[in-house]
Amino acid sequence: MSEPTHHDPLHFDAERSAEIVTASFAGATDERLQEILASLVRHAHAFVKDVGLTVEEWAAGIRFLTETGHACDDTRQEFILLSDVLGVSMLVDSVNRPSDGRFTESTVEGPFHLVDSPARALGDSIDEAGRGGEPCLVTGRVTDGDGRPVAGASVDVWQADAEGFYDVQRPGEVPERNLRGLFTADEDGRFRFRTIVPRYYPIPSDGPVGALLKTTGRHANRAAHIHLEVSAPGIRTLTTHLFVEGSPFLDSDAVFGVKESLIRSFAEVDDPARATEHGLPNPFRHVDFPITVRRGAQP
Amino acid sequence: MSEPTHHDPLHFDAERSAEIVTASFAGATDERLQEILASLVRHAHAFVKDVGLTVEEWAAGIRFLTETGHACDDTRQEFILLSDVLGVSMLVDSVNRPSDGRFTESTVEGPFHLVDSPARALGDSIDEAGRGGEPCLVTGRVTDGDGRPVAGASVDVWQADAEGFYDVQRPGEVPERNLRGLFTADEDGRFRFRTIVPRYYPIPSDGPVGALLKTTGRHANRAAHIHLEVSAPGIRTLTTHLFVEGSPFLDSDAVFGVKESLIRSFAEVDDPARATEHGLPNPFRHVDFPITVRRGAQP
Predict the structure, then answer these.
(1) Spatial contact of A57 and A65, defined as CB atoms under 8 Å apart
(2) What is the pLDDT of residues A123-136, one digit of tens each?
(3) Which domain holds residue A38?
(4) Which residues contact B41 (CB under 8 A, 6 or more apart)?
(5) Is the same domain home to B210 and B251?
(6) Same-domain check for residues A48 and A150
(7) Which of A218, B240, B277, B299 is most buried per CB count within 10 Å?
(8) Structurally, how many domains does chain A consist of?
(9) B75: in domain
(10) Given the residues B45, B222, B241, B286, the one annotated as active site
(11) Residue A277: phi, psi to the nearest 5?
């Protein structure tokens, strides 16, 4: 038998397990990858030790990951869904786009920004289907941290309909790119468009992630929201949601996308003159969403 | 806008992110699952924060997991391979089967215990193919923590051949269940069998896990070993390896399976009388592997 060499780092030892595995990556030329793997290994090993993971539980984890992988195809990304329901997607967003209170907060982009939004004129309606729903006027103004308007800012919007479906979930039933629009703010940074109030909707729940939610007593719903992506030369692109005050699930959004500052009243307006001015039936709902963006290069 | 309710735990907040997500599992009826998810979320969020994971790095992680899932099928388990090369499999083994120094140490079972080993008589050869390799005698004795023999213990063995392949990797080329054997120890706990010295071999490296090893400058090889699984009524089943002293990769086994105490000399014996006694050519190699098992129920 060979003489034991207790300081050889690559013979397994439960006490030093993360250190041993991290040492195996010492030859990696990509230092950032090495740093990420070291942290990943440290946390994965601490998790196993902290909970005293049994062999059966480990095997159940392997099965879950395998099923999640098999649920992924060209149109479905079950691992992103897993990241979403574990709050990891929102955390990655926050880590990369911290808000200091002066700027409009961001949220995740989500999986439905699949197609380019059609360019539309300020005041246009994005509801091409006309299948019902509460008529709504959305107004806003894009300014920078000093309150100066961002003239000509691009405001890309997309949303679910009054039954909780995006256009891409209803191919053939609704016009392509229904409830999507790419607007250009005016010289004063202002934008406006007509739409219908979106409904809350469930994330796909017929796969392993849905089974996890069910097993743990969680629902699969997202609170009602309109997606906005605001960009302009010289500002950092903002990806966010505008949440409908009073929507179910604001306090338990399945992907943790809700931030207090993004919840807005979609107040009822009963004013025939204003309705006519905007080309809306009376009464209608109105939400105003002032947006403050950060000047500077993309990170 | 709704009044902010700063103590609502399910609106996202980067500082308290793990706490918020853990609270979402409060309705789970399975307390153990709740405990595991809480630790998983805590470590996953700490990992993202510790390294400051970028959106691009997160996306690369999603892609890697998806490819790993797609590489899994009925005959290949790429997630187990990932667990192996990150040392997680060995850690789970250690957490569940701690050694206090008195008992023979365990290692992982590995993916090649696919078929039942054929029952063989003590002293039989497990090398049915006869395709070459160094002839070898393996002897051992199974005792308990007090040094008492475990009469009639089952000793299940399987190994790669002199070129580093298991029978299941060479269907049609070698007899089925070649280099596998199920032996029954005698009244004194002793067992012996003839075989050939196994060679080191690479784990499957044509998938995402192989790509990870390559990118990080790691090789895919396992040090040469014979697998043993020792069981008997009233003792805890031991799954371990017997490593060949002097094998390449003992200090860098790709799955971290090596423990000092499991490395043994396969010493050359030049003794025509002993060779004849055991039905082996002269010279031959001999390894003795005393095995100490723990009495008690399976955990």
Answers:
(1) no
(2) 999 999 999 999 99
(3) 1-53
(4) A86, A87, B18, B21, B22
(5) yes
(6) no
(7) B240
(8) 2
(9) no
(10) B222
(11) -55, -40
Q: Which two tokens stand for residue B290?
A: 């005393």
Reported ipTM: the value is 0.91
The verdict on A152 and A217 lying in the same domain is yes
Q: Is B29 helix (H, G, I), strand (E, B) or coil?
A: coil
Q: Which residues of A touch B43 (CB under 8 A)?
A: 43-44, 46-47, 50
Task: Say if residue B148 is in the same domain as residue B249.
Answer: yes
- Each residue of A255-280: pLDDT tens digit? 999 999 999 999 999 999 999 999 99
Q: For tokens 């490296």, what's the residue?
A: B205
Stronger pLDDT, A110 or A128, i.e. the higher one:
A128
Catalytic residue among A97, A225, A241, A285: A225
Contact A10 B260 (CB under 8 A): no
Annotated active-site residue B227? The verdict is yes
Interface of A with B in 65-84 (CB under 8 A): 65-66, 68-70, 72, 77, 79-80, 83
pLDDT at B235 over 70: yes
Contact call for residues A188 and A151 (beta carbons, < 8 A):
yes
Residue A9 lies in a domain: yes
Hey, are the CB atoms on A44 and B95 less than 8 Å from each other?
no
Same domain for A136 and A245, yes or no, is yes
Give the C-alpha separation, A142 to B167, whole Å.
Answer: 68
Other beta carbons within 10 angstroms of residue A25's beta carbon come to: 22
Kindly report the backbone phi and psi dihedral angles of residue A262, in degrees, each rounded to the nearest multiple of 5, phi listed first. -100, 0
* CA A202 – CA B155 distance, rounded (Å): 53
